[in-house]
Amino acid sequence: MSQPDALTDLRDRLRLFAADRDWDQFHTPKNLAAAMTVEAAELLEHFQWLTAEESASLDESVRADVAEEMADVLLYLVRLADKLNVNLHDAALGKLAQNAAKYPVDKARGHARKYDQL
Amino acid sequence: MSQPDALTDLRDRLRLFAADRDWDQFHTPKNLAAAMTVEAAELLEHFQWLTAEESASLDESVRADVAEEMADVLLYLVRLADKLNVNLHDAALGKLAQNAAKYPVDKARGHARKYDQL
Amino acid sequence: MSQPDALTDLRDRLRLFAADRDWDQFHTPKNLAAAMTVEAAELLEHFQWLTAEESASLDESVRADVAEEMADVLLYLVRLADKLNVNLHDAALGKLAQNAAKYPVDKARGHARKYDQL
Amino acid sequence: MSQPDALTDLRDRLRLFAADRDWDQFHTPKNLAAAMTVEAAELLEHFQWLTAEESASLDESVRADVAEEMADVLLYLVRLADKLNVNLHDAALGKLAQNAAKYPVDKARGHARKYDQL
Predict the structure, then answer these.
(1) Looking at beta carbons, which residues of chain C come within 8 Å of B49?
(2) What pTM value is reported for the model?
(3) Fewest CB atoms within 10 A around its CB: which of A6, A81, D32, D47?
């Protein structure tokens, strides 16, 4: 039997986790969006005073803390997607296709300007 | 042949996308953390004036916009995980196990207090 | 002699604080913008699971914590304004005038739609 | 007659602005905290791909956009402080005193470590 996809697996585990604790009442899309933003910012906090170089060679203990914040962002994102009936993989593939059209290789190469300034 | 996992698939596509455009230079963990936080906040913007109830019954056009912001968060998250050699599924499973221990069903049921106030 | 304005007073105190600690090197606009966003999100964390009603009647201890996060946001904002030579009061008055034009009383009254949907 | 303090002036203008539009119903502390975080992130967006050096020498048009985002953060912060009866100047002075104690000059000089790692 095939294993479920990682995103599906997490979705199902989160459903159970919330049901066991009667937490669906708190998991409105609005609250989940706020919680996800908070976790993203907690992740950013680890980097706020680092140089670009330092941010690319984290101490192992910082890297582990950052990995936990990444997990928090993913868990809230998966939960939000479940509540809004969004297929995250499909949404991401759609966005990648959009970005490929907005940032053609020959125009976007080597700089970080926004698509409307290419 | 088995399909790659959604997260692995996105990781590989993003590697190629960045390489084609010579964008690795911009994708420091610090910058990716900032970009991910910005996308999370853009998602939150859709909900900021909505009531909890309104946030649970979005117009289809708003839901589609929100799905795009979710895709943006996921794409930056996957890219950051790649840069920091973090396996997102494993990190999320680890966090779920931690949360299960911090929020035992009998103590956490039905309220949203933090684990240190259970 | 007249007292300095609150914003000017804080600007001057922060200059001294940073100079004493040789922290100007860390206070790039980019880093200050990240730090301010992190503090705003830490403030938001206090509200993420609250209902609208609960958020309007905080326990005194939560209110005090929130006040500290507000102070953090203000301090980074004042510091960033100093680094970018922005007069915050003038900028805020300018924005208020813009908003008054974008949201005329008769069209904006009683709902939270964006100006382009009035 | 003495001029009102900038923060008091903005507070009063925002009260009138909201009253004219019957917007107090939307200005719960929770919503204001979310809106302020969104504006902070929009400010951060201007910096996300810039190097530290680039962030310190913005084009004038970018600086003007950033000043508008700063105004937005300040306006929501002042509005939130009003709703929670927080005196922002006092809160900021209190936080500065706390920070001075947590980061003594001799220990904090020249590095950006957190107070618990000095």
Answers:
(1) 112
(2) 0.96
(3) A6
